[in-house]
Amino acid sequence: MSVHIGAPEGSIAKYVLLPGDPKRATFIADTFLDEAKLVTDVRGMVGYTGYYKNSEVSIIASGMGSPSAGIYSYELYSFYNVETIIRIGTCGGFKKQIRVGDLIFALTASTDSAWAHQYNLKGSYSPFCDFSLLEKCVYQCRILNIPFHVGMILSSDLFSSYNALGETSWHPWAKMGALAQDMETYALYGTAAYLNKRALSILTMTDSCVTGNSVEDDKRLKAAEQMAIVALETIKDL
Predict the structure, then answer these.
(1) Cα(13)–Cα(39) distance, rounded to whole angstroms?
(2) 202, 209, 182, 221: which is closest to 102 by C-alpha?
(3) Which position among 46, 56, 128, 175 has the lowest Cβ density within 10 Å, counted as fewest Cβ atoms?
(4) Is the pLDDT of residue 81 over 90?
């Protein structure tokens, strides 16, 4: 057992989907998993283990921000022998061609966080995804005809709408090629690299910083279905 997850030994699969929102974890477990069982609800961060087409998979909520995502991914990798984590999250888009509902695969993540300071690296560290997971997920998107984009994203400690630096503070990141902003991918990728594990972040663009278009509040859970299907179909074939 770990401090923040507290699930019994052996109750978490070696493949994990990691949404930030506990409600999204419950929705995906109820919608896609057979024999789903609640294995943790410590601090309201629910987690389920069940089967998708005979493949065992767990869905664990991580909460918001790098510290929370870092804690959950570290404990999953270190205490529950998890080998692969696929984050299924939402993001704000930085490019006009990325439409609401499109998927973004984070090839690498930049950040304004101090997360990488713990690794004592004498420079700027850019963590990246596991290529084999990316390749398989892209393949699934093409089979399912799901629009997707691949590139660098920004994982920020600052929620864009509440940023005291101003509503255009994301512009320099977009100019340098960032496709979107989330808050968790950098910590997941850094933790995976440090522990020699596999990780991929799949994001659904729910809010465009460019056009102001967004997914309606009552449709946000439903908007997670496509990235969940892509992730689960990939896990099934691992």
Answers:
(1) 11
(2) 202
(3) 175
(4) yes
